[in-house]
Design brief:
Blueprint lengths: L25 H19 L7 H10 L3 H11 L4 H13 L3 H40 L2 H7 L5 H20 L3 H15 L5 H18 L3 H16 L5 H10 L11 H11 L11 H19 E5 L2 E4 L5 H23 L13 H13 L4 H24 L5 H11 L5 E5 L4 H5 L7 E4 L14 H7 L2 H12 L4 E5 L9 H10 L5 E4 L10 E5 L6
Parallel strand pairs: 3-4, 3-5
Antiparallel strand pairs: 1-2, 5-7, 6-7
Helix pairs in contact: 1-5, 1-6, 1-16, 2-4, 5-6, 5-7, 5-15, 7-8, 8-10, 9-10, 9-14, 12-13, 13-15, 13-16, 14-15, 20-21
Length: 528
């Protein structure tokens, strides 16, 4: 276990300057304020339209509360973020900025909670370093502007670190109650929470068995169990989702690969919207050794950092829980057959920030520390600029053509159905919109037994029915490349339509954009 005091750790007899040195000169204060103001801008704005996950999340959240459970049962997600977004949009509306501002607000809270967590390990100066690292990080910026639950997840984890340490110091009911509450909120926010909670319970069991903080460890375990019991009403839904939804859009990968992706993307090496980013890779090259210093390093003087492979005591708990939580999550997800995206690793991002901040704190020369932090901020905000300007989807381009040219009664077919929510959000009412293979409306995606449903579908029959349904109206076909669930299927549908009607390619997929729907037009045959 680690020391649970608010005071920063120092080696006995060390002549190094204390970690928590006052740094309140006007220049420092102005620099921190500037970083914070820029961070608020990047946390709350991007020009991109909503892509699938965001548009689908909004469509589910806007359903009547009585319909929310069934929609989530088909979607495969827990309900907390959707409930919060439901009430948020009731107040602030469903514009892109309004919707994403909830995630931005959660990310601001995550930065604040990380500040408090860092102060317990590194003092006030270390806490400000952690806040700067998190505010200017491209990963934070991306998920502050994503209408999904990941910034909420980071907030809960960072707050959980503080609550855990407070409860271990003094396991009274007022300190244990937040632990139970945060466990419940965590489980209702993201299912990967289970992996981290398993590791934390393992640490507590080890501490109790070793006799270190035994009473506190037992009481915290009880508090976590109480929080876990709050999940029991949702457990049947979770088990159904686990059996019937999952991640049919991807394939499992061995844990070492997503581990590398996670570290890369925590530094902005790549994003969910486009290919590799130069500034992200430069930031990765800088942050990786700083992360290593955070795990193994100890500042000695202005020119020396001591490396201890045993991991210094003050870094041990954060390094183990964060590292083991990620490895356990990636391993069990692979064994369960789940696909991976680096957003799933959000539950360990606060641990990463704390360790990076501790790594910076081993740099005892204020000039070196200031320069390296300035470079981190510059590279991070370069990624923030990309996040502001980069489109995550071509839905707006497709919808623009439909708004300008499609007539009431025209049939719009989406293949795959995963393209439906983002385009449907932007088109005018009055169009007949359907998805392959069910002819269902495009606002939602039913992930239940997704691969089985597609395997049983009959594309030729769907094409005949769609052509008959279009009748004298134009048939518009929205499709996109790269979906492993629809290999060759959507192209085949287009060819079937082209046998009866003239095919006109109206927009093309852009390989630089993450979600790249394209649009084809099939006018009704001229009357003879």
């Amino acid at each position: 276990m680690t020391a649970l005091s608010d005071a920063p750790s120092r080696q006995p007899g060390s002549t190094a300057p204390p970690l928590d040195r006052p740094q309140r000169s006007p220049v420092v204060v102005a620099a921190v304020a500037l970083v914070g103001i820029a961070g608020l801008y990047f946390f709350f704005y991007t020009r991109s339209a909503l892509w699938l996950d965001e548009a689908l999340t909004v469509n589910i959240a806007r359903l009547p509360l009585s319909d929310l459970h069934q929609a989530l049962k088909q979607d495969g997600a827990p309900p907390l973020y959707y409930l919060l977004l439901h009430f948020w949009t009731d107040v602030f509306g469903t514009g892109n900025v309004a919707i994403r501002s909830l995630s931005g607000l959660f990310m601001v809270g995550a930065v604040a909670a990380t500040w408090f967590a860092a102060r317990r390990f590194m003092g006030t100066t270390g806490a400000w370093i952690a806040a700067i690292v998190m505010i200017a990080n491209p990963y934070s910026i991306r998920y502050a502007t994503e209408a999904r639950m990941y910034s909420l997840e980071m907030l809960i984890v960072a707050a959980g670190i503080v609550a855990f340490l407070r409860a271990m110091e003094k396991p009274t009911v007022p300190r244990l109650a937040p632990v139970a509450l945060l466990v419940a909120l965590f489980l209702y926010t993201q299912y990967w929470s289970v992996y981290l909670l398993v590791v934390v319970v393992g640490v507590l069991v080890w501490a109790a068995w070793r006799g270190q903080h035994r009473e506190a460890a037992v009481r915290v375990i009880v508090a976590m169990a109480i929080g876990g019991c709050a999940f029991l009403p949702w457990l049947p839904t979770f088990l159904y989702q686990r059996a019937h939804t999952g991640t049919p859009w991807g394939t499992p990968v061995l844990p070492g690969i997503p581990l590398g992706y996670t570290l890369r993307d925590f530094a902005g090496g790549a994003s969910g919207t486009a290919a590799d980013r130069q500034e992200g890779w430069l930031l990765f090259v800088l942050l990786l050794p700083v992360l290593a210093l955070g795990v193994f390093g100890r500042g000695v003087d202005d020119r020396s950092v001591e490396i201890d492979l045993r991991v210094p005591r003050e870094a041990r708990l954060i390094a183990f829980v964060g590292g083991a939580g990620l490895i356990v999550g990636l391993s069990l997800n692979y064994l369960a057959g789940g696909a991976f995206q680096s957003r799933y690793s959000a539950f360990v991002f606060p641990f990463f920030v704390l360790l990076v901040a501790r790594g910076f704190s081993t740099l005892r020369d204020p000039r070196i520390l200031a320069v390296t932090l300035a470079v981190v901020v510059a590279l991070g905000y370069a990624g923030g600029v990309r996040n502001v300007t980069t489109q995550r989807t071509q839905a707006g381009q497709v919808a623009s053509v439909l708004r300008n040219e499609a007539k009431p009664g025209d049939l719009v077919v989406y293949c795959p159905d995963q393209l439906g929510p983002s385009v449907h959000r932007l088109v005018q009412p009055g169009l007949d919109e359907v998805v392959y293979p069910s002819f269902a409306p495009p606002a939602l995606v039913d992930w239940v037994d997704y691969k089985k449903v597609l395997a049983a579908a009959k594309p030729a029959e769907f094409a005949r029915t769609a052509l008959a349904r279009a009748g004298p109206h134009t048939l518009w076909f929205v499709s996109g490349p790269g979906y492993i669930t629809h290999v060759g299927v959507c192209e085949g549908l287009s060819d079937d339509f082209a046998k009866v009607r003239l095919r006109q390619q109206r927009t093309l997929p852009d390989p630089k954009i993450f979600e790249k729907p394209a649009l084809q037009m099939f006018p009704a045959p001229a009357k003879s």
